Amino acid sequence: MQITDYELFAVPPRWLLLKLETDEGVVGWGEPIVPGRLETVRAAVVELIEGYLLGGDPRRVSYHWQTLYQSGYFRGGPILMSALAGIDQALWDIKGRHYGAPVHELLGGPVRDRLLVYQWVGGSDAEDIAESAEQDFARGYRAFKLNNPREFRPLETTAAIDRTVDRVAALRDAVGDDCLVGVDFHGRVSKPMAFELVRRLEPYNLAFVDQPVLPEHSEFLRRLNNQTTVPISTGERFYSRYDFKQMLADDAVSVIQPNVSHVGGISEMRKLVSMAEAFDVAVVPHCPLGPIAFAASLQVGFSSQGVVLQEQDLDIDDPESSQRLALLEDPETFEFENGYVERPTGPGLGIDVDEAYVREKAQSEVNWYNPVWHHEDGSLAEW
């Protein structure tokens, strides 16, 4: 079997999809994307495939991964690792389809029957957040994450901190104590404010506080982790096991949140989960992406004991109205019940992409960039 061709499709709102083709007619799909840097990642995918992959046997997943990573003198980072991630996902998809088995079977078999998923909760104020959370709770979700705060100055007022805490309190009150609640600071909070804000959130029994500081300041995570009862988390802006290595060795985090489309794909994410297990650090994969990335992340989650919770942004509770799930031939592929997604049983990634619909959507212009926020004085704020 040989890899003979590939195609890339940019589809709304911000996804890049990869189709890998073989001489035996077996096709694999991947999702290589850095939201807001789509064209840059596209160029990297083209370089990697045309420079190293065409003509190769797609079943040699580990060899190809190592070649695509190690053959470049300059390695790592969001662009190259995300390009590699999408290629790796597609290779695993081909291999699973060739052998007629889900990828998780090829990785040693399932360790669970279902996996708890969490829902992102939106809202501009405490009242909106409570209303949104109550609706999601009624749909069956039992785990939630809130991006909080919004623009947060390096030195903030007590009132601003109070407003942030009030939003978390509203979410906790809305869903009760028998649900997991996480808060993502999104790197918006400075070091001195992070210590104070985490301290103020301790009474709400959070599952984690994610990205309490920017990745550039990860050396402060160890001290924060040692000073609070709240599990400290980070990881969506780290791109390989080497980026996580020192944090794990330093006992700087209790949870990590790698993304299967940024961290080098299924191959690298599986190794990273094993590393985290050795330090008793839980893994909550980050995945506010499309259905291919979600399917790839699930293959790791169902074959890895250390994955305890999975992000999704697909509205899997309501597949008929989900624009993202419309990319699949069967939008009901992911079975959702009582806050859990059931184990996929189809070959490869366990999904069938609706190629005709993808081609139709790829005719649209996809030009998404991160919002640019400002503080009241006109200086840039972290998004």
From TrEMBL:
Q: Name one GO biological process term.
A: amino acid catabolic process
Under the GO molecular function aspect, what terms does this record hold? galactonate dehydratase activity; metal ion binding
Which part of the chain is the Mandelate racemase/muconate lactonizing enzyme C-terminal domain?
126-231
Q: What is its EC number?
A: 4.2.1.6
Keywords (A to Z) from UniProt: Lyase, Magnesium, Metal-binding
* Top-level taxonomic group: Archaea
Is this entry keyworded DNA damage?
no
Question: By its UniProt entry, which InterPro entries does this protein fall under?
Answer: DgoD-like, Enolase-like_C_sf, Enolase-like_N, Enolase_C-like, Galactonate_deHydtase, Mandel_Rmase/mucon_lact_enz_CS, Mandelate_racemase_C, Mandelate_racemase_N_dom
Q: CDD domains recorded for this chain?
A: D-galactonate_dehydratase
Q: Name one Pfam family in it.
A: MR_MLE_C
Q: Note whether Transmembrane occurs among the keywords.
A: no
Against NCBIfam families, the record matches this protein to: PRK14017.1 (NF010624)
Listed name of the protein: Galactonate dehydratase
> Which organism was this protein described from?
Haloarcula rubra
